[in-house]
Amino acid sequence: MATTTLPRPSLPPSGPLPSLPIPKTRKSSVASLSTPTTPSSSTGLPLPSRSPSGVPSRPPTAPSKIQHVATSSLPRVPQPAVGANTPRALRKTISIGSFPQPPKIPTRPGSTSSNSPISNPSTSPALETSIPKTPNTQRRSASHGGTLKRPPRTSSRANQLRSFTGSGTPSLLNGAGAPSVSLLDLPSLPASRASSAHGSYSPFDDEEDRRGRHRSMDDAKSETSKGGKDKTGNVIVSVRVRPDAPGNESSKSDLEWMVDGRRSLISYRGREGGEYIYDNVFAAHDNNSKVYDSAAKRLVRRVMEGYHGTVFAYGMTGTGKTFSMQGTASSPGVIPLAITDIFSFIRETPQREFLLRVSYLEIYNEKIHDLLTTPVAGPNGQPTQQEEIKLREDSKRGVYATPLKEEIVQSPTQLLRVIARGDNNRRVAGTQFNARSSRSHAVVQIVVESRERAGPNNRAPLPPGGVRVSTLSLIDLAGSERAAESKERRTEGAHINKSLLTLGTVISKLSFEKDKEKGGPNSDKHLPYRDSKLTRLLQPALQGNSLISILCTIQIGSAGSIATAQNHTMETLNTMKFASRAKNNIVSHAKKADEALGDPGSRALLDRYRLEILDLRKQLESQSKTTKEKEVVEVKEENEQVEKAREVQQEQRHEEQMLEMQLARTALKERIEHLNRLILSSRSLGVNANRSFSSLSMRNGELTAPRSARSSTATIDASHLNRTSSASSLRFSRASAASTNLIIAEGHEGPEPEEEDSLGENGDGTATSAVQVRALQADLADKNRYIQTLEKRLLQARRSSHSRVSMSFSPRFGTQPTSPGEEGSSEAVIREKDAEISELRARLDDKERMLSALRSAGRRREVADLSLDTGSGAHNSATLRSSQRISQRTSSGSGSNTSSGVFSNAKSSGKSTATSPVIGTRSPVPSTLSPMKRGSKDSVTRPKMDEMTKMLDEMITERVHQRSTSGTQHRVDSGVSVKPSLPRSRLSES
Ligand SMILES: Nc1ncnc2c1ncn2[C@@H]1O[C@H](COP(=O)(O)OP(=O)(O)OP(=O)(O)O)[C@@H](O)[C@H]1O
């Protein structure tokens, strides 16, 4: 027979999640939820009545009756007392309605309920000898021809296989058990039919389910009142009969079986025949939905409420275990329907929050494989070996496989996909009995975490109450099978059989546990959980920590051949016995899982995630806070920086401005001081040595003679008209005008320095000083104005180079100081001014020298005059002096109007009618001097005067020539317009 092993897809493995825990609270009590079961009552299952030899008894005439009785109207038949010593007599059933009520089954020989009409295969004397052999012994026997007798053929197959719908027999699964005993009979939340994945639910089912439950409970009550069987309650054992393959002829053996689903009874009339009553019996036509509803639905709901639950399918290969657990698209099995219910429950329980994680493993050839982890291809292309998964045990988690991948799921579809992925990875192969036989035990574990949802007013970090963690294990066992043809199949089969045998053995020996509790003779018997991975993994459940639902699948059809029929019968009987032992021996003390209170180290992801979420939220908040603060700080800093920069800029600008101002002020002050110094020295020079020439002033950059000086000069001129030649005066005037830019009238006879001095010294000295002071003041005012003008120009020059100067002085920009050229322009102006001042000083010096020369010439002339005018000239001189004094007095009193004073004085004397000697105009010879006098005087002194004048003229001309050259040069160089007060025409003349 060709066998194929489905290849596993090579997907990258994902990191394993924490392994699934299996709580191990073997000795926990469920007193609060269910009344303790006594050993006798815990055996609960009505088992087939057996003959003393151990062969189940069967009613000899039942089949013929069964087929004619309507199941709905079946009356209950009084239950015969069957005990260990009950004679092996088949219960005679006239009709289904006459089937007896399920008897109480004695748990062990000598038990108080040993009068149960149905004996326990594992404990009844009839089975004492056979049970140790089962299942392997029996299988071995069967494979060697079988030890079981062939049941007598009593009826036709059609009649025998007739099953009865409706559940007249009390069972835990269908809710018929005593409500106070079975957790699985506790009222559950109404089923959410609408949530069924494939619409397998219907209102009819609901109604039927309710009716069935009510009916069953009534039955249970009546049974209890009748002293009927007790049940373990938390363990549900169901048997499902697989329909025969279409086209198979019915064999005689088929007719020996009778399946009564309504009463959860299977009757076998062959050898070792009898009646087997379970919690549920599903006939061939029962669909997966019914199987789930009756065998697993309540268990799943209990799991959602916090109990651990285990559902597993057990049976011979090809009998429909996988079909029952997984189902098909049109008929979903226990696993998909459980998933649907899980999410329905979550939807119906808004007061709690849930977290689901799922793992999927298989035990293949006694090795555990993670079906959710896909092996990765190694360097040689071959898939790398998966890390070995081991079973571990600790007090908190019980027995668990590690490392095992767990996936958190959030929807039924997601969960179904995960499981489908695991199914794809499961090892299946074709065998003699199943084209797609599961070669491994597959365990789906769904861990349900739940906790009370926090109310809107709850401000605690975690919701009140802890996290409850429960586990739903859905196990599809590999089928027991006979030796296969291929070595691989044989090896697989050997492992499968071995593990199943161990499971059977453990379950068989579970009765010893009861003994232990009671201190019975078998209390020291060892339970070989560790003999197989399967039993080791199931240990917590088998020890009673979990609600258990066992679905045993059988096939009673002959499949066409006698050999097959024989084989089937033996296997079916073995399976049925296994189911009976499980029902009788497994005691579940399942209780709700404790709520782990906010333990971060606990395996409850809900708590860990909650705490992590809290932590992350805090981090996020602090981060966003920090970010905000940072942003604020950054903005602040930016603003501050901008503000600072602005302030710095402003400060720098201010500093620059201040510096500039300071510089300008300093420069101006210095300049003023310098100029003042210069002025002072110039004034002092003028006052002390050059009184007449110090009165030179500058108006608007032009050197002019102050009026006082002019007037005095005019006066002097007038007084000296008779003594100076017009030519020399003219020459002097021209020379001095050229050298000093004085505006002196052409033709004006130069002043008589001696006379002037004598006027000051010998005449009205006070008046002379006042005139000089005024002249100096005017001169000073002129100079100040000139300085102001210069300062203004300096300021303008500074302003024009403002930005460059700022840059040069700004430390921020680090630029170089102002270029020498720019600075030079200011300096040039200053230099120029200095030069001008120097020039002026030089001119003053010249004038001084000229004055000295004139004075000495005057003295010499005076000496000459004195020598000539002996006696006669004294009167004229005195008169002249007198008139000069008057004139001087008048001029000093009139101030600026000196000339007019002079003229008025001249008019009053009646000596002068000539034009006034206005400075700046050619002044005619004063008329005060008579021509005769002048002529006589000139004739005497002319040679001397001419000589002196000539000498002076030469000196002045030379000097003027030098100065004019240098002055012109200066003016050209500096560009400063120092206009000569003399008109150009006159200058050119000079
Ligand atoms: N109740 C049923 N109704 C219809 N078909 C069924 C039923 N039970 C089983 N079958 C069919 O029988 C065949 C074998 O069933 P399945 O593979 O579920 O057996 P198994 O017990 O899982 O076998 P194995 O132990 O070898 O895996 C399948 O084709 C399945 O569809």
TrEMBL record:
<feature type="region of interest" description="Disordered">
    <location>
        <begin position="858"/>
        <end position="990"/>
    </location>
</feature>
<feature type="compositionally biased region" description="Polar residues">
    <location>
        <begin position="902"/>
        <end position="930"/>
    </location>
</feature>
<keyword id="KW-0547">Nucleotide-binding</keyword>
<feature type="compositionally biased region" description="Low complexity">
    <location>
        <begin position="803"/>
        <end position="812"/>
    </location>
</feature>
<feature type="region of interest" description="Disordered">
    <location>
        <begin position="746"/>
        <end position="765"/>
    </location>
</feature>
<feature type="compositionally biased region" description="Basic and acidic residues">
    <location>
        <begin position="935"/>
        <end position="961"/>
    </location>
</feature>
<keyword id="KW-0175">Coiled coil</keyword>
<comment type="function">
    <text>Required for assembly of the mitotic spindle.</text>
</comment>
<feature type="binding site">
    <location>
        <begin position="315"/>
        <end position="322"/>
    </location>
    <ligand>
        <name>ATP</name>
    </ligand>
</feature>
<keyword id="KW-0498">Mitosis</keyword>
<feature type="compositionally biased region" description="Basic and acidic residues">
    <location>
        <begin position="209"/>
        <end position="232"/>
    </location>
</feature>
<dbReference type="GO" id="GO:0005874">
    <property type="term" value="C:microtubule"/>
</dbReference>
<keyword id="KW-0493">Microtubule</keyword>
<keyword id="KW-0505">Motor protein</keyword>
<comment type="similarity">
    <text>Belongs to the TRAFAC class myosin-kinesin ATPase superfamily. Kinesin family.</text>
</comment>
<dbReference type="GO" id="GO:0008017">
    <property type="term" value="F:microtubule binding"/>
</dbReference>
<feature type="compositionally biased region" description="Polar residues">
    <location>
        <begin position="131"/>
        <end position="140"/>
    </location>
</feature>
<feature type="compositionally biased region" description="Polar residues">
    <location>
        <begin position="709"/>
        <end position="724"/>
    </location>
</feature>
<protein>
    <recommendedName>
        <fullName>Kinesin-like protein</fullName>
    </recommendedName>
</protein>
<dbReference type="InterPro" id="IPR027417">
    <property type="entry name" value="P-loop_NTPase"/>
</dbReference>
<keyword id="KW-0206">Cytoskeleton</keyword>
<feature type="domain" description="Kinesin motor">
    <location>
        <begin position="234"/>
        <end position="585"/>
    </location>
</feature>
<feature type="region of interest" description="Disordered">
    <location>
        <begin position="700"/>
        <end position="732"/>
    </location>
</feature>
<dbReference type="GO" id="GO:0007018">
    <property type="term" value="P:microtubule-based movement"/>
</dbReference>
<feature type="compositionally biased region" description="Polar residues">
    <location>
        <begin position="153"/>
        <end position="172"/>
    </location>
</feature>
<dbReference type="InterPro" id="IPR001752">
    <property type="entry name" value="Kinesin_motor_dom"/>
</dbReference>
<feature type="compositionally biased region" description="Low complexity">
    <location>
        <begin position="28"/>
        <end position="56"/>
    </location>
</feature>
<dbReference type="InterPro" id="IPR036961">
    <property type="entry name" value="Kinesin_motor_dom_sf"/>
</dbReference>
<dbReference type="InterPro" id="IPR019821">
    <property type="entry name" value="Kinesin_motor_CS"/>
</dbReference>
<feature type="region of interest" description="Disordered">
    <location>
        <begin position="191"/>
        <end position="237"/>
    </location>
</feature>
<dbReference type="Pfam" id="PF00225">
    <property type="entry name" value="Kinesin"/>
</dbReference>
<feature type="coiled-coil region">
    <location>
        <begin position="606"/>
        <end position="655"/>
    </location>
</feature>
<keyword id="KW-0963">Cytoplasm</keyword>
<feature type="compositionally biased region" description="Pro residues">
    <location>
        <begin position="9"/>
        <end position="21"/>
    </location>
</feature>
<feature type="compositionally biased region" description="Low complexity">
    <location>
        <begin position="881"/>
        <end position="901"/>
    </location>
</feature>
<dbReference type="InterPro" id="IPR027640">
    <property type="entry name" value="Kinesin-like_fam"/>
</dbReference>
<feature type="compositionally biased region" description="Low complexity">
    <location>
        <begin position="111"/>
        <end position="125"/>
    </location>
</feature>
<keyword id="KW-0132">Cell division</keyword>
<feature type="compositionally biased region" description="Polar residues">
    <location>
        <begin position="869"/>
        <end position="880"/>
    </location>
</feature>
<dbReference type="GO" id="GO:0005524">
    <property type="term" value="F:ATP binding"/>
</dbReference>
<feature type="region of interest" description="Disordered">
    <location>
        <begin position="796"/>
        <end position="833"/>
    </location>
</feature>
<dbReference type="GO" id="GO:0003777">
    <property type="term" value="F:microtubule motor activity"/>
</dbReference>
